[in-house]
Design a protein that fits this description.
By secondary structure, the protein is an alpha/beta fold. The two termini are 53 Å apart. The N terminus and C terminus are likely disordered.
Length: 784
């Protein structure tokens, strides 16, 4: 919202220098298109100086000095059908692709509420509805779905879903349904306190010229999009818009786009934030070979947006589309908002770019001297003037989530009332499909008998279970299949005095192993296994230091609770001291292995050498509190009961609620285990049921479910990725230096093979880091 300058406006003389122009802008001058174009070519340091000062002035004027905001949201991809054909988009599907993926044309109300309720439980206050433009005008399948369900149009369905979300959860909806007519804007206003649509660019060349990014996309007509933004202002809707940098537009186009948006806001004052988004090339698109937006040009566009709109506009950048090391530069460029960030769902428009952890984003913001604060879908200025900007139907829901300043209050949205998806009264046997839907939406509401019923599903009921679990996966973590490039090193084989047999290594060997792994493209080395009793426990730490010498930038995923306890006890450090020493030596995350199932009965029968259950729990929670994230596992198929599996999942979820330390869960068939829960059920169906129940039982708690391809094989892994799994673990490179020192030697999964698995499922593939960030593509020539 531009509210005018607090200083007299001083226009520079035509032909003035950039310094003179910046001086005038600092004093209140508003640059025209020619001046804006000149600014986009100016030195960054000069732009940053004035842009930062303007931003700080605006925040002081707003009463929240040095506060940068974000919205805690869930991302709801209501439909991926669209009538447009943008050349950079991976969000949209055709009906044929939906059939192959077994995806519905539109998310059902039950599927939407499943996701939104999980977000509600995690404190999210915004539900972002994103979808393709008017799919029913291109695809008969979309028209048929709408007719079958009684909706006149996609926008009509958006209004229904938005109303349902707020009524059921108390969360507020930000609607992004694309191009809308004035009557449609008016229809959505009572259910969505803010709306949005990117302008992207005013370039008609990109729209009219064959081969350009918007050719063949009727809703990307710049004049049409400008009219929608103008109509939103006339309707009194707080509106989000912005530009996309790097899609083939010229610098002049960027200047014209920014000034055009400012002119519309001048008429209505409804533009609540301007997003400056950088283009990132995506695989499987016409622009996959196009370079990403140049960082220098992007930073210039961010700073110039601030200069064009002045102190009082909120300038937003998406933090997941930039390297974490670049976020400080974006703050220097004058931004004051990070937009929506989800602790639950993927960025379905940019699935290859995970959201940052909100704590990490707060820390990165703090390093620049700013405080991160949560806001609502509508910015504080609009919340504070609700009589003008917010429909009366939404006044109470907005007040329930806002504090006195108009930012988000430290509350969770109100609990959902009873509905079709909450427990309430039900038949004795609700059926597996119904149970699975309830499990996805509210896993804590199911009793142990319900979960056992799901674990024992067979035939068509098992298909219903896995479909529900796969939907829960799809609409939270998204479609990508992920993999980390790594190598195992079994610390039980460490010999300080030197290698004497197979599987052994010394510190010099560890240095060479790490260097070789990094050379092969690995971003992680996993070390686990207790040292032999005759090895000094300081070897745990010396081994870490050796690996870091060999590969200084590699991520070290090291030491189970059992190993840490050995270091703590024999090393005389105590548990907290051992964890501190590990951190100082270079350990980054820890494995959550070393336990089969959280049952003393099972431990005594199967693995009496494992840590006692209470000591394992103590160890993993201490690691989490010390700042280490970890994996979590369950070994099944031995002597455990269905009830013990469920108790294990419940306890992991309870630990996660306390520490938020688990990054993933891995259901692992025990080697040699052949105990199924249902007599005659095939092994693959046993695995399908276990993966599906794991996904549903941990919904909203542990995001990633990893498929242990080393135990089930590649073919079965593909099946389990359709049962709720989203990750394939690691490549487990043997390496060229002492390959026998890895516990799973001979079981490599090269990147190309993992890509083939993902491709067979019609899903994108992404290399990840240990903590599920984006990893660099391999350039190492490792054989595929």
């Amino acid at each position: 919202m531009s509210t005018g300058s607090v200083a007299p406006r001083v226009a520079p003389a035509r032909g003035a220098s950039i310094d003179d122009l910046l001086t005038a802008i600092a004093a209140g001058h508003r640059p025209d298109v020619d001046e804006t174009e000149a600014l986009l070519h100016a030195p960054l340091h000069a732009l940053f100086r004035v842009a930062s000062a303007l931003r700080d002035k605006g925040l002081e004027h707003a009463g929240r000095p040095r506060v940068i905001t974000y919205s805690r949201k869930v991302f709801v991809p209501l439909t991926t059908l669209c009538r447009d054909r943008c050349h950079y988009c991976v969000f949209v599907d055709t009906p044929g692709q939906l059939n192959l993926l077994r995806k519905p044309a539109y998310m059902s109300p039950e599927q939407v509420l499943t996701v939104v309720r999980q977000g509600q439980g995690m404190g999210c206050k915004e539900a972002l509805l994103t979808l393709g433009d008017r799919p029913e005008e291109r695809w008969p399948e979309a028209r048929a779905w709408l007719d079958e369900h009684g909706f006149a149009s996609t926008i009509d369905y958006v209004a229904h879903i938005a109303r349902l979300i707020t009524a059921e959860t108390g969360m507020l909806v930000h609607a992004n349904p694309g191009v809308m007519h004035p009557d449609e804007l008016a229809a959505l206003r009572p259910v969505s306190p803010s709306m949005g649509m990117m302008l992207e660019t005013t370039s008609r060349r990109l729209y009219e010229e064959p081969g350009q990014v918007h050719f063949g996309s009727p809703d990307k007509d710049p004049d049409l999009r400008l009219k929608v933004i103008d109509d939103a202002g006339a309707t009194g809707i707080p509106f989000t818009t912005g530009i996309l940098v790097g899609i083939g537009e010229t610098v002049r186009d960027r200047a014209e786009s920014l000034v055009a948006l400012r002119e519309i806001d001048d008429r209505h004052g409804h533009v609540q934030e301007v997003i400056v988004q950088n283009f990132r090339a995506k695989p499987r698109t016409a622009m996959q070979g196009t370079p990403d937006a140049d960082m220098h040009e992007y930073l210039a566009a961010v700073a110039v947006a601030r200069l064009v709109f002045g102190a009082d506009m909120r300038i937003q950048v998406p933090p997941n589309l930039s390297d974490p090391r670049e976020l400080g530069l974006l703050i220097d460029a004058g931004i004051d908002d990070w937009g929506g960030v989800s602790p639950l769902t993927a960025d379905h428009v940019n699935p290859e770019r995970p959201w940052p952890q909100i704590d990490d984003l707060a820390a990165q913001t703090a390093t620049q001297g700013y405080v991160l604060r949560e806001r609502l879908t509508a910015h504080p200025e609009y919340v504070g003037d609700a009589e003008r900007w917010i429909d009366p139907a939404l006044h109470a829901p907005v007040r329930a989530l806002a504090d006195a300043t108009g930012l988000a209050a430290d509350v969770k949205p109100a609990a959902a009332p009873a509905s079709v998806l909450t427990p309430g009264a039900r038949a004795v046997d609700p059926g597996v499909k119904r149970l699975a839907e309830r499990a996805a939406s509210a896993p804590l509401d199911l009793g142990d008998n319900d979960w056992v019923r799901l674990l024992r599903a067979t035939g068509a009921e098992l298909d219903e279970l896995t479909a529900a679990a796969d939907d829960a996966r799809r609409y939270t973590v998204g479609e990508p299949v992920t993999l980390v490039q790594n190598r195992n090193l079994t610390s039980t084989g460490f010999r300080r005095a030197g290698r004497t047999g197979a599987g052994e290594f010394d510190l010099d060997d560890a240095v060479r192993i790490a260097a070789d792994a990094a050379d092969l493209g690995a971003t992680e080395i996993c070390i686990q296994g207790s040292l032999r009793p005759d090895e000094d426990p300081s070897g745990y730490l010396d081994l870490v230091r050796a690996v870091k010498r060999g590969a200084p930038g590699i991520h070290l995923h090291a030491y189970r609770p059992l190993d840490v306890r050995d270091l703590a006890d024999r090393g005389g450090l105590g548990l907290d001291g051992a964890l501190t020493a590990m951190r100082e030596a270079g350990v980054d995350t820890v494995p959550g292995t070393g336990v089969k199932i959280l049952s003393e009965r099972v431990r005594a029968l199967v693995a009496p050498g494992d840590l006692e259950i209470d000591r394992w729990v103590e160890g993993i929670t201490a690691a989490h509190r010390a700042g280490f994230r970890s994996t979590s596992v369950l070994f099944y198929g031995h002597v455990e009961t269905a009830e013990e599996r469920i108790a294990h999942l419940r306890r992991l979820r309870a630990i996660q609620a306390e520490t938020r330390g688990f990054a993933e869960f891995v259901p692992i068939p025990l080697p040699g285990g052949d105990v199924g829960l249902v007599e005659g059920r095939s092994p693959i169906d046993e695995h399908r049921a276990m993966v599906a129940v794991s996904r549903l039982a941990l919904s909203g708690s542990i995001s990633h479910v990893q498929i242990p391809w080393t135990r089930v094989g590649r073919e079965a892994a593909a099946v389990l990725l359709r049962s709720g799994g989203d990750d394939l673990g690691g490549t487990l490179y043997d390496g060229r230096v002492l390959p026998d020192t890895g516990i799973e030697q001979g079981l490599e999964l090269p990147v190309a093979a993992a890509e083939r698995i993902a491709r067979s499922l019609m899903r994108p593939f992404r290399l990840r880091t240990t903590d599920y960030r984006v990893a660099p593509r391999p350039g190492d020539g490792h054989p595929a």
